[in-house]
Fold:
Amino acid sequence: MPQLNAADSRPAASPLREPTPRWVLRLRDGVVRARTRLVEPVRGLAPPWARLQLMMVILVGVVVVWPVLWGGLPEGDDVPYHVAKNAFAFSNIFGAGHLNGWAPTFSMGSEQFLLYGPGLAALASAMRVLTLGAVGHESLVAWSGALGLVATAPAAYFLARGLRLGPTGSATVGVASLCVSVPFGVGAAGTFDLGLIPHQLATPLVLLTLGALVRAVDLEERRWVTLASVAAVAVTVTHLTSALVTAVAFGIVLGLRAATPSAGRPAGGWAAAAYRVFLAGALAAGFGAWWIVPLLENSGPRPPTATWTTQPLGAEVRDLLTTHLWASTAIVVATVAALGMCLVWWMSASAPLARLAPWRAAVVLAGPVLLLVLYALHQLLPGDTALLVVNRGTGYAALLWILPLGVVADAAANGRPPAFGLALVAVVGLAVAAAPSLIPHREDIRPASPPSPELTQVGGLLEQRVPPEGRFAWVHEDGFDQSFGPVHPDLWLAMEAQVSTLNGFGGETISPVDTFVQYQLAAMDPREADPLLVRNGVTHLVAGPSVAARYDSLPGWEVAWSSPRLVLLERRADVSLAAPRVGQQTTLEAWEPERVSWRSRGGDAVVLGLPAFPKWRVTVDGERVTTSDTDGFLTVPLSGDGEHVVEARFVPSWGDRLGLLIALIAIAGRTGLLGRVRRGAGAARRRFVGGGTEDVGGGTEDGDQRG
Structure:
């Protein structure tokens, strides 16, 4: 038998292992935590059957928006506005590496994200990059609206779980949230009838913010503070009005918790809870400072905001109970019945509400109280802000109003096996998915109807003929606009032709000057309107035959195309983007959205076709000058005779730079990067100081040689 020597008896060497980087392990752990915590109640993980209920909720949402998932322009009055705005942002702002910029697309131009932040445009741009440009901006807007509607259901589930509802009740609330359909925003009516896409995209973020804040009050856990701050800043840069309503809604929820008898103290006491809520708000302000600080800093003219009048509170309550203002009759009846049952349980101290502990008053009363407070703010806040808060806020009151449905569902499932809860959610979800009448305006969740052949032909001509520095104007007439398909044909033409338009009030953010000229052109004397059109860079007019005949009589205009119902007029002269003055000749030398130059001869001042916005920096012959405004337009002084070169550049302000710096510091501080850098610098300093001391003492051979 052969003998083994010592070398043969040694175990074989293990192969070298490739260590997994720590960041990969952290990423893996984060994914696992995110997957399990979405359905996590206040304490402890939800059972697997509860996660199945959540999947049912999401599936119902997907079924509801299924018609718009296959691409193309969706239905919605303002949808073309968002498509055109997103396309410009993708190519000219984000594509240039900027966070904001000047957009000439609508009216006389405005800062792109002055009043409504880049949330929708950023999402659409990200999806366009991820799809390698294969999906058009029309489809991306449809997907964004669908995402906002579908995500509302799990976000409502998340909020309900934070308020101590069980999995079955929370899933019921999630499905019911899809049935909320308010014309002024939230749900199918606002999204696919009026086209309020940013509002719908903000809706799940609002519910996510409220759910995280509720948890931050109850628990001393860092993650809820961070989630609340991130979600809050996402709401703010997507739909500012929704952020204001979020603050009001959480104040109501927190106040009802504090007023609830025997509610108990939050984790660590009220002082600690207040600190956590304050920290979440401070972090949100820090994370979003890159947009919030420039908004607060801007002292220039702000554009008017498109909104609606508000009916009295009594009429609002009557309509929500008797019409489909908020939801279908079946959902309204079920919600009112559930609210009545919860009030009875509350007065009798029954178990269904007792399980909600400190949040029982908030679950029952938050919706009605929010509606009352919004109407009170309508009387207190100034201007359009009051109208926006009450109009856009009623949808969020409706979402809180349906919470009692979850309490009733939990009471029905209490003491029964999990299969009963699964079956209950499945039945409710199947009813919503299969019965279109349960969601008002669900028929509007579809691709947009095609425009008339005339409008399509005009769009093709505008795409070919309107120069980048020019714009077209649609002449509004009563009963004329809606006869070509889209509710706002001017917005559709701007989207289709990818050119600028003097119109745009159908959108949500427009120029601070000449906002309503589009509505006055039909009644104006063409000789009075012509100088305005020259200053505003209008090269084409789209009008009905009678109005077009009056403008065609002017020497500078001619018919480029006509049909029995629609006429396209074209101006023969080049664009000057300057007000014509007797004895003055001004020509446009170069044009980019944020850099324009002219040559002007004669006169002591020139009125430019740019709004007098504070971020425009103007030079004359290379020297910076102080501008004034004439009817809201930049007016530049000219000194001396001869020809002058005038240049206007749109540049970032101190608010842009300061806001970005604050945001970077806030992100670095919360992620720990700032602390790691500080600790690394301290360790390096200690090593340097320690090494120097050792050398001075002659402790090393190298030190002796250097000495």
